Every structure is written in structure tokens, then in C-alpha cells.
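Hello,

Following up on my earlier ticket. Below are the three sequence lines again, exactly as submitted.
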Amino acid sequence: MPELPEVETTRRGIEPHVRGRRVAAVRVRERRMRQPVTPGLEGELAGQTVERVERRGKYLLLYTAAGTLILHLGMSGSMRLLQGGEVPPGPHDHLDIVFEGGTVLRLRDPRRFGLALWTREDPLRHALLGSLGPEPLGAGFDGAYLHTLSRGRRTAVKTFIMDGRVVVGVGNIYASEALHCAGIHPLRAAGRISAERYERLAACIRKVLRAAIRQGGTTLRDFSDGDGRPGYFAQRLAVYGREGLPCPTCGAAIRCLRQAQRSTYFCPACQR
DNA sequence: ACTGGATCCTGACTGC
DNA sequence: TGCAGTCAGGATCCAG
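Thanks for your patience. The regenerated structure is below:
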């Protein structure tokens, strides 16, 4: 479920409430995730103070002096901050981090595609993060980068920009949206797109992600920020989930196709 | 080296 | 009301 804007919205929501706070206790109710929750996480994290909360791609990183908690929300994960009184955990509330003073950071993930891992090493060198591509909103990501990397690649451009080794954070919603913004057909072979068009695509990826972050992310069904508020970018989606409705640019009917087991939405008239 | 497909898991929704 | 089938915002592993 969460792509870069939703993870960034989550980061911004929880960071002010947990930065500089000491962990009083950690409760793990369900260890079965994409990988098992790190054994001993409870003892490692308890007593530590969260120094900062960062994001790398779709990963959230809670840094402490002793190590780092790596969180991933998978398809269905979300985080909630609870204040004071005890709110009973639901069936998919797998992890609570209880801070001194009573604030609780709670991870919910019904499908358990997410992760909660502890590392004492540099998390950016962790096996899961080490081969990630550049941040789309950071330096090192532009049209020239995409153009160079894509030479000789026959895979569809939509699949290409959703590959975390190419660029992080672009998931199924924002891939469709960025390609529409750039006027590029999602099935076009990545290696057969010009440098000029990749400049436009890189700019569109940034534009779409920034706009989504400003709106607090996209809530399709259950995404919410740390305080339980939904995101409002769904109202701004040009193509995603809009099969049959008119393209906001040209009015043609939006179409949907399946690509690598994922739905792709596009405008057959203005995307070539 | 690349590529597409299957897969992990639960819940919501559709149609019979 | 129940049940089967389909789909969902991610990422990895596998065979070809």
C-alpha cells in the first residue's frame, strides 16, 4: 500500500513524537512478517533513545545509539501513535513501541508483507537496503541517469521505474501517474525512450511525489498518517483507478491493463 | 544479464 | 446468507 509519499507522511507524523524519547518497552505480538521480526528486538531497543527517524525508499529507520530499527510497511502496513490510556490492540497490531511518558508507536500490518528488523550495523548497508537505487527527490536522480541506465533494456518503462534498484519509492499508483504526466505509454520499452523524454519523466516523478506528499499521501482504503488522518491525494489522481473516466488532459477514456500482475492505468490518446 | 511469472498473506468486494 | 473468485499501495525468488 504505501509508496514513498505515504511512508514520508508517516515519518513526518511520528518523528516529532518519538525523537529524543526513550523506549520503555517493546511488545511483539506477531513475529511472522516477510522476514521474522528480529529475535531479541525487545531487549535491544528497550532503554534506547530514538535519535531521529529517517526514510530510505519505502523503509523507515529509527536510529538509536545502539542500533537501528528498520521498518517496512509492505502493502497493508500503517503506523499509529497512541497517547496515554491503553487502546486494546487489534488482531493485526503486531508491534508496540512504548515510550517513557506513555506514547505508544503501533505497527499494524494485516497482510504481514512488512518488516521490523534490528541492526547494529549501518542500516544503509543492510542487505535489503544496500542495492537500492537513488532517491527520486534527491541528488543523483535525473533524466540522464534514467536514460543511461535504460539503454538496452526491453522491459516496459512502467516496470522499469517501479524497480527499486533503478529508483526507490515509485510504486504502482505513482508509476501510472508519472507516466501520464510525462505523456509516455506504460508499455513502451525502457530502452527505446529518448533522453529528452526521460528528462520529462524524471521531472514528472518528482512533481507527482512532491504533490502527493503535500496532500499527505493517497488513501485508497486504509492508509493514515501517524495521527489517524487520511491522505488527500486520491482526489488528484489523473489516471489511477479511473478506468473509463475522462483523461483530465484530453478527455479520452482512461484504460486499464495488467502488467506484471499489477493494474496499469493510462490515457491511450495522450500517452505514446 | 534480463524478463515475466509465481509467491508470500489477509480482507474487501463482486457475482451467483 | 454463504461461498468462490478476484483484487489490493510491495518485493523477492525462480525458471527460461
